[in-house]
Amino acid sequence: MDFLFGHISTTALSLLVALLLDRLFGEPNVLHPLVGFGKWVDWCRSALQLPAQVKPCQQRLNGVLAWGLAVLPFVLVLWWLLAVLPDWLEFILGTIVLYFTVGWQSLRQHGVAIAEPLRHGWLDDAREAVGRIVSRDTSSLSEGEISKAGIESVLENGSDAIFAPIFWFVLLGPVGALGYRLSNTLDAMWGYKTPSLLHFGWCAARIDDVLNYLPARLVVLTYAVCGKREPAMRCARQQGCRWKSPNAGPVMAAGAGALTVKLGGKAQYFGETQERPCLGEGREPTVEDLDKSIWLVDKGVYLWAIVLCFLI
């Protein structure tokens, strides 16, 4: 493929095409591969999860086996296909894999779906929209709390759904992007500290933390460059470590600082009020700040695309 596009590498070209496809078409509404993967994950869990009274070490061991059974077959099959296919088919397959693993347009659509009704004062519709992408209770959120929840989700998922898959694609190719996306999905399904998943989901949660560590730090820099640099870096450095997630904390703190708004604070989860650390600095967020958070992620994607085209 290089001879067709001069100095642009196939990796860079594949990245640009995949981002363009995602921006134009978003995620497919039917036959999305992750739907089938979710059913496979449910089977792996039912086959290997042990009762809660079994020793934690045995539950963790079965969690490791379940993670391997859920993720590795797909990664190995893709690795084999890329090894045997001709270059032009390898390029097409890699581009399709990245397209399916990046959720840029989907994240934008979720953010806009919250902002639009909020702009018109339709709080019930906004609460329903934000409830689709956050795990907290949303039935009684105020306008400011809806904006805050939406911004937090956009900033955090900007790292998980967009920048991290691109990072692993550039580093390890389509196999890296697929492995990351499947691992991240597994963490979203198993990585909870409930009695049934505390030990069984331990492996999925820890692997996701490891895979997100470097991309999250690059996203901190990205949000700082694309927003208010000094408060973004200061908030990430001083506040990020207080958050329950070692990767989401710095990312959200940097994003809040870049937007000069306050995030975190009290939130309802499953009927219980949790006092979360405060992130960012400045004023309480509004719907306009939700719009700005979507644009912040957009600018980050454009920045990564430009920089990577020069570097790879």
Write up what this structure looks like.
By secondary structure, the protein is mainly alpha-helical. The protein has one domain (9-311). Helix content is 72%, strand content 5%. The chain contains twelve helices and two strands; from the N terminus they run αααααααααααββα. The chain has a two-stranded antiparallel sheet with strand order 1-2. A hairpin with a 2-residue loop joins strand 1 (262-269) and strand 2 (272-280). The longest helix is centred in the middle third of the chain and has 48 residues, at 143-190. The protein is globular, with a radius of gyration of 20 Å. The relative contact order is 0.12. Mean pLDDT is 93; it is low at 1-6. Keywords: Cell membrane, Cobalamin biosynthesis, Membrane, Transmembrane, Transmembrane helix.
Radius of gyration: 20 Å
Q: How much helix, percentage-wise, in residues?
A: over 70%
The total domain count is 1
Structural class by sheet pairing and helices: mainly alpha
Distance between the termini: 14 Å
Low-confidence runs: 1-6
Number of strands: 2
The helix/strand order is HHHHHHHHHHHEEH
Organism: Rhodanobacter aciditrophus
Family: Belongs to the CobD/CbiB family.
Subcellular location: Cell membrane
Keywords: Cell membrane, Cobalamin biosynthesis, Membrane, Transmembrane, Transmembrane helix
